[in-house]
Design brief:
Blueprint: E1 5-9, H1 13-25, E2 29-33, H2 36-45, E3 50-54, H3 62-71, E4 80-84, H4 89-97, E5 102-105, E6 110-113
Parallel strand pairs: 1-2, 1-3, 3-4, 4-5
Antiparallel strand pairs: 5-6
Length: 114
């Protein structure tokens, strides 16, 4: 069976490195994008099995990426985990409005799931 692919989208290199290492240890192939526009280009090239998506990024933020992907039939069912700073209640609400699957705080606490 081919490895499943995770798209890690974050403009912070340390976060990308950490998330990539965590996913690779679990056997996932990892593709990286540094901002929302790069993420959209990656998803146009292939459909990932999971997207780990930072909220605060240049060019196109995580909410915008999430909204666009959830509107497309080909990507509507791809699980998206929005990542945000701990204790940001507003991020949770906007994640719900963007129809994300799950929003996680950087501390690792789940803020919402559907």
């Amino acid at each position: 069976m081919a490895n499943q692919t995770v798209l890690v989208v974050d403009d912070n290199a340390q976060n990308v490195e950490l998330l990539t290492a965590l996913m690779q240890v679990e056997g996932y192939e990892v593709v990286v994008a540094a901002n929302g526009l790069e993420a959209m280009a990656q998803v146009a090239a292939f459909t990932p099995d999971l997207i780990l998506l930072d909220i605060m990024m240049p060019k196109l933020d995580g909410y915008g990426v999430c909204r666009r992907l959830k509107q497309e039939a080909s990507t509507r069912l791809v699980p998206i985990v929005l990542l945000t700073a701990p204790g940001v209640e507003e991020a949770r609400i906007q994640g719900i409005e963007a129809e994300s699957c799950t929003t996680w705080g950087r501390s690792g606490s789940r803020m919402r799931s559907s």
